[in-house]
Amino acid sequence: MACRISELVIDAEDPGRLAAFWCDVLGYVELDRESDGSIQIGPSGAGFGGAQPTLVLNAGRSPRIGKLPLHIDVNATDRDQNAELARLLALGAVPVDVGQTGEESWHVLADPEGNEFCLLRTRLKSI
After folding, report:
1. Half-sphere exposure for 75 (CA within 13 Å, toward CB)
2. Which of 30, 34, 99, 114 has the fewest beta carbons closer than 10 A?
C-alpha cells in the first residue's frame, strides 16, 4: 500500500485573495468554505480525492521567518514557459531572488502573500 497527496494546506492572511489567485493559476474552482474562513479549492468536477491535490487556504497566519521548507512547482499546459510567465505576472505573481544564477530553466515567483513557487519549463498535458 502507498499514500498519495490529497491536499496541500497553506496558511493565509486573506484566504479569499489567495484562493482567487491559485484558482486563476491552476484553473481550479472553490469547493468549500468553512465557518472559520478557510477555503478549499480544486479541479472542477473532481474535487477532493481526484487525480490532482486540492489546496486548503487556512485563515490566520503567523509571521513567517526565513525560506519556506516546501514550495509548489507549476508547469504550463497550453502555452510555452514565457507566455505562462507573462500570464502569472499579470495575475499578481512577482519574481523572487532566492540566489538563482540566471542560468536556471525555471522561474522563482511568489504569490500575493509571498509564498514562493516555481514555474518550470516543460509543458505538461492537461489532466
Report:
1. 10
2. 99
